[in-house]
Design a protein that fits this description.
Oligomer: single chain
Helix content: over 70%
Strand content: under 5%
Largest sheet: none
Shape: globular
Structural class: mainly alpha
Distance between the termini: 36 Å
Order of helices and strands: HHHHHHHHH
Radius of gyration: 17 Å
């Protein structure tokens, strides 16, 4: 399930003769502005900012655990989803309805994509669905903004998706043992970050990111 979006993107790109270009966009760095790098590292800074308010004591962790978390989250998240969600779907929708409308639509699809996880015994099922939905929509705006700022590079989408997941994982060690405590505490900060992302795109492009289908 996790790799469905990226596998679909790979199949479509092979059909259209764009496979090499798609892979190239996953490692493109030259088009990434400083503002997008800020969005990439922001989730980790949010965790550091909220650490003093954690309801429980922190648990020390080593570099091995962090490295494992990075590898685990890359494979079971950004690499399996972002080629499709942002590299194909966001790219197509940006051209027709504007980047912000596209981000919100991708966010809704992304949320529905995760819903089966609440029907099985999974870590996601421990999270309040409304809280998760709010986070997903904020993530979608932040990632969509970074993608738009970067001229088609998929790398920022992959890295923001990674740092968002990594912050949620490391929050357990930072004292947020109950996932809901982390999602509730960080919700307002992610909302602020999403608004900052909108402002960054507007400052760079002059576009609000919403256009009519007929324009």
């Amino acid at each position: 399930m996790v790799w469905g979006p990226s596998l679909a993107a790979i199949i479509l790109s092979l059909r259209d003769g764009q496979f090499t270009a798609l892979l190239g966009r996953t490692v493109t760095i030259s088009t990434i502005p400083v503002s997008a790098w800020f969005l990439m590292i922001a989730p980790i800074f949010l965790l550091i900012l909220l650490r003093p308010s954690a309801p429980e004591d922190a648990t020390p962790i080593g570099l091995g655990i962090v490295a494992t978390a990075v590898a685990f989250n890359l494979i079971l998240g950004p690499l399996g989803e972002e080629l499709g969600c942002r590299g194909v779907l966001q790219e197509h929708l940006n051209q027709h309805i504007g980047w912000l409308a596209a981000s919100l639509l991708v966010g809704m699809i992304w949320l529905v994509w995760h819903l089966p996880l609440w029907t099985i015994d999974s870590p996601h099922a421990q999270i309040s669905l409304p809280l998760f939905a709010g986070h997903v929509m904020c993530y979608a705006v932040i990632i969509g903004a970074a993608y738009t700022l970067c001229g088609g590079s998929i790398l920022p989408a992959i890295l923001i998706h990674l740092t968002v997941n990594l912050a949620s994982n490391l929050a357990l060690f930072a004292g947020f043992r109950d996932p809901n405590s982390w999602f509730a505490s960080s919700m307002w900060l992610y909302l602020v970050l999403a608004l900052v992302a909108v402002a960054l795109v507007y400052a760079r492009t002059g576009e609000l990111g919403v256009r009519s289908l007929g324009s």
